[in-house]
Amino acid sequence: MKTVTGVPWAAWYVAMPRTASARPPVRAYGQYSATRCTTASSSGGLTPGRGRVGAGLAIAGMRLILRREVANVWLRETAPGPDGRAAMRWQIEHQKPSTPPGPLQTPARDPSFPLKASDFEAFHAGRESALHDLLGAHPCERGGEAGTRFAVWAPRARNVGVVGSFNAWDGTAHPMSPVGDSGVWERFLPGVGRGDLYKFQVRSGRGGDGAPSGPSLAVDKADPLGRAAEVRPGTASRVTSTAPYAWTDAAWVETRPERAARGVPISIYEVHPGSWRRNADGSWLGYRALARELLPYAADLGFTHIELLPVMEHPYDGSWGYQTVGYFAPTSRYGPPEDFQHFVDEAHRLGLGVVLDWVPGHFGPDLHGLRTFDGAPLYELGEESRAVHPDWGTLAFDFGRPEVVSFLLSSARYWIERCHVDGLRVDAVASMLHLDYSREEGEWEPNELGGRENLGAIAFLKGLSEMTRRDSPGVLLFAEESSAWPGVTAPADEGGLGFDFKWNMGWMNDTLRVLAASPGRRPRLHRRLTFSLHYAYTEQYLLPLSHDEVVHLKRSLLEKMPGTDEERFAGLRLLLGYMWTHPGTKLLFMGGEIGERREWHEDGELDWSLLDPSSNPAHRAHRGLRRWVRALNHLYAGEPALHALDHAPEGFEWLDVHDAKRSVLSYVRWRPEWEGAVVVVANFSATAWPGYRVALPEGGPYRVVLDGGDPEFGGSGRAAIPPRAEEVPHHARPASLAVDLPPLGFLVLQRSEGAR
User: Fold this and answer.
1) Which of 32, 313, 505, 685 is within CB 3.0–4.6 Å of 663 for a Cys-Cys bond?
2) What is the pTM for the complete model shown?
3) Taking the domain 642-751, which CATH number applies?
């Protein structure tokens, strides 16, 4: 907290006028308490200080510092604070019309003051991105008495009350008051504080505006903006502190943009926190235990990021978190919110970024959640036939409702700013973009232009990417997008959606199909191995071997491989080697690195006994596979040829793409400016090829950088290669090597440094 002339200042985004000409928000320092404040005119306008308009404003010896030029600064209101001093809020108008308004944060209201309808202007315009500062449960003081301010949006409710452990869940004990015509209800409850359970009892039946009329119906609802909840099967929200966490990762956050720059290696370990490892009694590891055990494990393997399946609160374990109810609450299964923040802080200390799986397309159908929140569809689409997703039974968000957009933008900002996460993986983007996704003719309605595109979802995703890029440099957005939608990773201002990476589902499906086939069938499938390079640079891609590929009878990665146990391990090393040397960012689901034999299930843990020499005769193969993943990560991070031009076509070149008969591929990955390279040779057949001639970009001595057959990695023996390339042209290259290529062999070669 910065202090100027004895006055504490707090940073916030100012509320902009709701006009089409309003510019995006300005970062300012401006809400504070003062013993005295004067204005330069009776109308509330303020006189600019020295310098050009907007450079600074002098107010009773204090300065309001702005980043951009403005035309006017207006005193919106003053109110007595709990200490008797005046609290002031300012509205800032821009000098010139500009682009349409984007997401913003309204000034954070001190919860000790009552809310006003004007606080929700941006919310109703679909531009609010800090709704968590306005709604939800906020411990505070009013009139010198400690308690909690509760606020909830329920515009069609007849009345709303706060129920909880503090009033025996009596809906008549603490009725809430409407905040003007905002649709928001508010109540301050003295004596209620951290740890207390609560819900909102929403009584519908008022009628009008699409709400059901007739007899009233009261339903107890969890807080949509709740920051904590009780452990399932309980469904209540829990009052928790809104005070900032004592972070120790300032240096990490400051340098985050450098780690997100184009061409920086990104290798992600995807984890379901409840089933990676469990306590001896079968109970979950908490966030703090995961910080002690999971994070060092992932860092040791050379991953750059951890990605967690949704940790937002959800009632059903079997949904893996994808049927979210609490969009602002880390699930209480693993501990309180501050323990989750500790997990992120510790990850940063160990050099790991944290990515969260986030589900803004649809939400859980549970009655205590967002469903028909005020007696009628509020967050979801109005007609149940359109709202219910046919694949998952969840409810689709209504992106045409501005308040829903504000709610989701605020959720994203909350995880990024309050929890310091480094990225969001947006689930099921294709289902958001297409109105007819998994729907037959007659089950969906065209947009106003007659098309099948969800225009509201498109605008939301663009707004999300613009907000993240502007306000949180270096935070990454990943799209799980399975269609051919163009420009997913193109900037929003160039017509794209603005994501940083798109999951390459085509590469994953094609490659797994080939590796799961018997070697005899692979020549006919050869083109599936190479097709991804036809489109590899149309987007910035991530190569996923995710949780979705090892569930629902799809078998584990190891068990997908055909043949003997030795061939299965060789096949899996081949798959991972091909993935780590193929252009694109990497993602591997937990268990893939140890050769898990069972399909993944959320109700258990990985089979760590596979690594135990006392219980598993094949432990060397499993341990060797884990060493293989570590070696791939270290090579990927340390060799510029494998990441610096990962998303540029000049970084990849086929040496031989046509040897389908023998199921062999060879290619070169170049460093920038062609200052060095690595050569990859991959044998997808179960046949050895003695003297296999590999074309090389230049002659000279070569060394083996990685060999999938190395006994250190569980292989049966290293490949034999000559010490020098022969000046024998091959495939229009000036030199070549004759290599004894083993079955399912995978080699990374490099010209010896200094040799010319």
Assistant:
1) 685
2) 0.86
3) 2.60.40.1180
